[in-house]
Design goal:
Arc Repressor Mutant, subunit A; 6 helices
Length: about 140
Amino acid sequence: MQMAASSTRLDVAFAALADPTRRAILERLAEGETSVMDLAKPFAMSQPAISKHLKVLERAGLISRGRDAQRRPRRLEAEPLREVTQWLETYRQFWDTQFQRLDKLLLDMQPADPNRNKSAQTGKSKKGKRQSAKGDAR
């Protein structure tokens, strides 16, 4: 049951994040809470259209509505973004491992440097210092 609820929250968060206007709204709210009018200024769309985007973000839990006298400023809610980040982290780690394996494979495929082989065979560099496999003087 816990996994299904988590999956649903992720689905709703990703659906909300899929729209560039909503991502831009979140970027603006990362700077601090603001009014709907201020959020609407950079966009060439009507107030009702902005309100629809805000409702999607609110349903996803990505923003909340505050109360400041007569204003209803919106603010960023970080928890759903943390859940998205945690989910993505698994795949970042997967790709990091894949790239490390690719780096190793490409390194192994490179032809040997003839000068490096001579130093490795004698166990000494040109200056007479012993070198490790990585070329560090010891």
